[in-house]
Automatic annotation (TrEMBL):
Protein name in the entry: TPM domain-containing protein
Keyword Transmembrane helix: yes
Species of origin: Spirulina subsalsa FACHB-351
Transmembrane intervals: 178-197, 209-230, 236-255
InterPro entries documented for this protein: TPM_dom
Superkingdom of origin organism: Bacteria
Domain named TPM: residues: 45-135
Keywords, sorted A to Z: Membrane, Signal, Transmembrane, Transmembrane helix
Xref: Pfam families: TPM_phosphatase
Annotated signal sequence range: 1-31
Length: 270
């Protein structure tokens, strides 16, 4: 009996020691809203996560100040990691309907997040901000270009669009996106070529079938192939390559059945 009592006391003491040691090494809870993190002087960039080198941060501050004086739009940048000033930045910066707050936080799946004033949506729709976040804030882009360039390039896209009076899409055509448009252009050409294969004797092209399938290959080639290119860049080279890809896909799909028929119709050698 005494042995059991001693064992129970020893077990309870061990559990208490483990609990106290865990509590002692645990990091203190951090406030969600911590105005003490805000600088004493007003600045359009608060880099708590140290993503921006000093010279680049100073250059970005000058660009934001000049942009606000020229256009009246307010751009602000907050980078954070463990601690954040939270909602107190709204009063600190006086954010309103003409303000854009870029928040860079590396703890999530995407580096960038945007808090956008209502007046901005008249010039830059919600789809613009989704594309902006996914293009410049994804892990692959950040890994190749760094957090600092992801922030600066995203702000450059916003400022250039606002200077032009608005954009429906983010300017510029990334290589990955162009490759996707090229693939859809080639696929559209293949479908058009297969539909155009003559099905009657002395028929050069089955234009009726090409017209029937035109919604399919037209969407692939025009909407998904040429559309994203011409709306994001004025460069003619990717347009030419997509048209060439559509043409080659068409010719391969159109000529392949004819070549197979001609080969199968040749007399066999005895």
């Amino acid at each position: 009996m005494p042995n059991r009592l001693i064992q129970r006391l020893f077990t309870a003491l061990l559990v208490a020691c483990v609990a106290l040691s865990t509590w002692s090494i645990a990091s203190p809870a951090k406030a969600v809203d911590n105005p003490a993190l805000l600088p004493d002087i007003e600045t359009p960039v608060i880099d708590l996560a140290n993503f921006l080198p000093t010279l680049q941060e100073e250059s970005l501050i000058k660009q934001i100040d000049n942009f606000e004086k020229e256009t009246g739009w307010k751009l602000r940048v907050l980078t954070q990691y463990d601690q954040t000033p939270g909602r107190s930045v709204k009063e600190y910066w006086g954010l309103d309907d003409r303000s854009v707050l870029l928040v860079a936080d590396a703890r999530g799946g995407n580096l960038l997040a945007f808090n956008v004033g209502d007046e901005l949506y008249n010039f830059l729709p919600r789809t613009f901000w989704v594309e902006l976040q996914t293009r410049f804030g994804n892990l692959y882009y950040v890994r190749e270009n760094g957090e600092n360039n992801s922030i600066v390039n995203a702000l450059d896209a916003v400022s250039s669009c606002l200077r032009e009076g608005g954009c429906n899409v983010v300017p510029g055509l990334p290589r990955e996106q162009w490759i996707l448009t090229l693939i859809t252009s080639i696929l559209g050409g293949v479908i058009c070529g297969l539909a155009s294969v003559p099905r009657q004797k002395d028929q050069v092209i089955a234009w009726q079938w090409a017209l029937i399938f035109s919604p399919l290959w037209g969407i692939l080639f025009i909407a998904f192939g040429l559309g994203p290119v011409v709306t994001r860049t004025a460069d003619w080279l990717p347009v030419f390559r997509n048209v060439l890809g559509f043409t080659l896909g068409f010719l391969v799909a159109y000529l392949s059945p004819m070549m197979n028929r001609s080969l199968s119709s040749e007399p066999e050698m005895d």
